[in-house]
Every structure is written in structure tokens, then in C-alpha cells.
Design a protein that fits this description.
Elements: H1 3-10, H2 26-38, E1 43-50, H3 57-60, H4 63-74, H5 80-88, E2 90-91, E3 94-95, H6 100-107, E4 114-119, E5 122-130, H7 131-134, H8 138-154, H9 159-180, E6 188-190, H10 199-213, E7 217-220, H11 223-229, H12 240-248, H13 252-267, E8 276-277, H14 284-290, E9 300-303, H15 308-321, E10 330-333, H16 339-349, E11 354-359, H17 361-364, E12 381-388, E13 391-392, H18 407-416
Parallel strand pairs: 6-7, 6-11, 8-9, 9-10, 10-11
Antiparallel strand pairs: 1-5, 1-12, 2-3, 4-5, 12-13
Helix pairs in contact: 1-9, 4-8, 9-10, 12-13, 14-15
Length: 429
């Protein structure tokens, strides 16, 4: 597809940003089914958070166009083909991953209302409802804001500027792929839906990775692209689960136990490669030091904040202390990845653990220094659960720059989870 010509000729009007309810990350659907079973009545509020406050989203993006895109998403429902894909496909070696009762609910699902307000140069965008409803706004909302920002910049560019822009961006992606081809037994998945440049661009990147890496390309987190391109849908779980479970805790003892209750519920539903621990919501080292022994039998761990090498070393020591062979365990790196970091981590841990990489923004949105005034550089935009049943959520992370929640609750969580001094890391994307 000639993306540049399509952008220029259509000015995007023929392309809704979100084309399907399954234009989302696979782990959102897996988590949604778990929430549907375990917390069907929990009320949750999600809120958009622009960590890059120097990007004036409300100046760049027309409010009417934003509402038009959000309203379009609310009109979407699961198609028959999409339902067949989810009901009948094999994911992670398991057929009928999604239960009939969940699928019946999902086939009749529409996204709940949103609340949009302009505050200065930013938008306040929130979603409220039962947890299994409101949570499905996260990925499409982020994708809409990211792509509308891209369209605002692209709309000021002329035909040949666009052609050169996309030629340079394609060359950049392919040069990255060529470097990765040299890595023996590398496994990389596309994790770039939430902060992609556009749907068409993510789709192009997945096709390039499929051709360029072959068996080294593990798949994509995007369900719609996985279905269309016949690649694996990749994903497990996210910080959202322990954040909400913790907010629902009635006292400090329940709070301390909440991350493990999440994984107990997960283990009751999933096996094999879906049993991946995400330990950094309230601090990796403390999480592992207090973790029940049965968690050491799980397949692996995903590292999503802080120093990735240090976190992997902590996990290796933890496995060894519990009589496990780290060489049989999987470590998924997924924070701020680009080629240099992937190469370094792959080399450092070769033969010590099985490694895999969830490559996000710098795969699907690396337009740094390609547009005037660097107007297409990626930035950190998140949509998080901020309250559950009226109680605030908290995230500590292994990187204090990623912490969120009321200050007094952050201090309480640090006390309960025994979080000591932390080393701040730049939040790249």
C-alpha cells in the first residue's frame, strides 16, 4: 500500500481510526474475560494521562473530530467473522480460549459513554462503567489520540513531503530489522498498538517484521491485524489487574495479598505461556521476595519498568533460590525497547534464560526527526484505571517517574509493599 498517497489524496476522511472492537491488544480481551468472571459488578473509572505535557493535544486536535472518532467507536460491534475468529481459533495452544458466556456478552457489547472536556491545552477524557466495559476503552482511546495528532501534522505537509517522509520511515524500520536479523534465536513481537503512528502504519510494520524476521517474529498484540495477517495474537496481562484488586482491598493485609490474588485467579483460568508474572506494579524485588512458591512454577516474567537487566537478574536469583532452572524460564522485555537495547539484552542473557521482546512505540511510531519541528516524535500518553468502587488506584512501578495515585496512598502502598529507594529512569515512551 502506498500510505503516503492515501494520506495525501484522502486526508484520512475515508479511514476511521478504529475499524473494529478487536483493533485492540490481545491482553485486554484476556483480562476482560477474567474480570467478567471474577468482578462483574466492580465500577471503574479510566482516565487519559498525557505524561508529555509539552505536547498541547487540545491545540493540535480538533475537539469535533475527536468526538466524531470516539462516537464512531461506540457504534462498533463484533462482526460475525471476528466472533468466529475469537471463538474457534487456537491461542497459545488452547482452542476456545474465550468461553461461550463471555463471547455471548462480547457479541452484544457496545462501549459505554465517555466524558470529554478541554482543560487549557490538554483534554480530560474519562470512561466510567463496570470494569469489563470501561476497560475496553483504553487501547482505542490511546490509538485515536495518537493518530489524530499524527494527522494534524501530516495535514500540513505536501504530496512529495509525505512520500519522502514515509520512504524514510520505511527505510528506518527496515534497517532496524536488518540489524535484528543477525541475532540468533531472537523472538520479537509487536506491542505497538496503543501509541502507533496510525493503523495503516502498524499493519505495514507487522508485514515488514513478518517478511524480515520470519520465525523470529513472534506475532502482534493487535487482534485485528493478527486475524487479517494470519500471525499469532500475543499478550498476557497488565498492571490494570493488580491496581484494581489493590484498590478494592479493605485493609493493609488484603492490600499486601492482592497482587497474588490476581495471579491465583489467573492461574485458575490459564496455563502454559499465559502464566507470565508482571511483578513491577508495586515493586519487583518486594513482590518476588514475598511471592508464594507456586508462582516460581510459572512460565516466566515480563519486565516493564526500571532497569531491565537488573530486573532480569533479580528474577534469575529468585528462580534459583526456589530450586528452578532459569534456563527453562522466559523473560519478556517490554519497556522502551529499540534495536540497541534489544541487542544488548539478547546478548547478555543468551543461554541464561529464554528471552522475548515486546517491541512497542519505537517499532510502530518512530518518526523522530522526520517531520518539521520534530512534530511526529512519539510521546508518552497513557490511559489508566484511576478508581475502583470509588477508591483511588495506585501504581508504584520500578521507575518512580511512572508512579501514579494520590500522594498519601502512594506512601501507604510503599509502606505496605516495603518499597525502598528507587532509581529514576527517563520515560522514553
Amino acid at each position: 500500500m502506498d500510505i503516503a498517497t492515501r494520506v495525501y489524496n484522502h486526508r484520512w476522511k475515508m479511514d476511521p481510526i478504529i475499524r473494529s472492537l478487536i483493533d485492540t491488544d490481545f491482553y485486554k480481551l484476556l483480562m476482560c474475560q477474567s474480570v467478567f468472571s471474577n468482578h462483574p459488578q466492580t465500577q471503574v473509572t479510566f482516565s487519559l494521562i498525557n505524561r508529555a505535557t509539552h505536547i498541547p493535544l487540545a491545540k493540535l486536535i480538533d475537539e469535533g473530530e475527536l468526538r466524531e472518532q470516539l462516537d464512531h467507536i461506540r457504534a462498533l460491534s463484533l462482526s460475525r467473522g471476528e466472533s468466529t475468529f475469537l471463538r474457534g481459533n487456537t491461542f497459545y495452544g488452547k482452542r476456545q480460549m474465550f468461553r461461550p458466556d463471555f463471547m455471548e456478552w462480547f457479541e452484544n457489547f457496545r462501549l459505554p459513554p465517555y466524558h470529554l472536556e478541554r482543560v487549557g491545552d490538554q483534554y480530560e477524557l474519562t470512561f466510567q462503567g463496570t470494569w469489563c466495559e470501561a476497560m475496553l476503552w483504553e487501547i482505542p482511546a490511546l490509538a485515536v489520540l495518537m493518530e489524530l495528532r499524527s494527522r494534524a501534522v501530516l495535514g500540513r505537509m505536501k504530496r512529495f513531503e509525505l512520500q519522502v517522509l514515509y520512504a524514510r520511515a520505511m527505510t528506518r524500520v527496515w534497517e532496524k530489522i536488518e540489524q535484528l536479523q543477525a541475532l540468533e534465536n531472537v523472538r520479537i513481537a509487536d506491542f505497538g498498538t496503543r501509541r502507533r503512528h496510525s493503523f495503516l502504519w502498524q499493519d505495514w510494520c507487522v508485514q515488514a517484521m513478518t517478511e524480515g524476521l520470519g520465525a523470529g517474529f513472534a506475532g502482534t498484540s493487535n487482534c485485528l491485524i493478527a486475524m487479517r495477517r494470519e500471525v499469532e495474537a500475543i499478550g498476557t496481562n497488565a498492571h490494570e489487574l493488580p491496581m484494581v484488586y489493590a484498590a478494592l482491598a479493605k485493609n493493609d493485609a488484603e492490600l499486601a495479598d492482592s497482587p497474588y490474588q490476581v495471579l491465583a485467579d489467573w492461574q485458575a483460568e490459564h496455563s502454559g505461556n499465559l502464566r507470565i508474572i508482571l511483578p513491577d506494579t508495586f515493586g519487583t524485588e518486594g513482590f518476588l521476595s514475598r511471592a508464594p512458591d507456586w508462582l516460581s512454577d510459572w512460565t516466566g516474567i515480563r519486565i516493564d519498568s526500571g532497569d531491565p537487566a537488573a530486573a532480569a537478574e533479580i528474577a534469575i536469583r529468585w528462580w534459583k533460590d526456589r530450586g528452578q532452572d532459569p534456563r527453562e524460564k522466559l523473560v519478556i522485555f517490554s519497556d522502551g525497547l529499540d534495536v540497541a537495547r534489544i541487542k544488548d539484552l539478547h546478548s547478555r542473557f543468551a543461554g541464561r534464560v529464554k528471552t522475548s521482546f515486546g517491541w512497542g512505540t519505537l517499532l510502530t511510531n518512530d518518526f523522530r526527526n522526520l517531520a518539521p519541528d520534530d512534530g511526529l516524535a512519539p510521546f508518552s500518553l497513557v490511559c489508566k484505571a484511576v478508581s475502583a468502587n470509588g477508591r483511588p488506584t495506585v501504581k508504584l512501578s520500578d521507575n518512580p517517574h511512572k508512579a501514579m495515585g494520590p500522594k498519601e496512598e502512594i506512601q501507604r502502598y510503599k509502606r505496605v509493599f516495603e518499597v525502598g529507594p528507587q532509581v529514576a529512569q527517563d520515560v522514553v515512551v
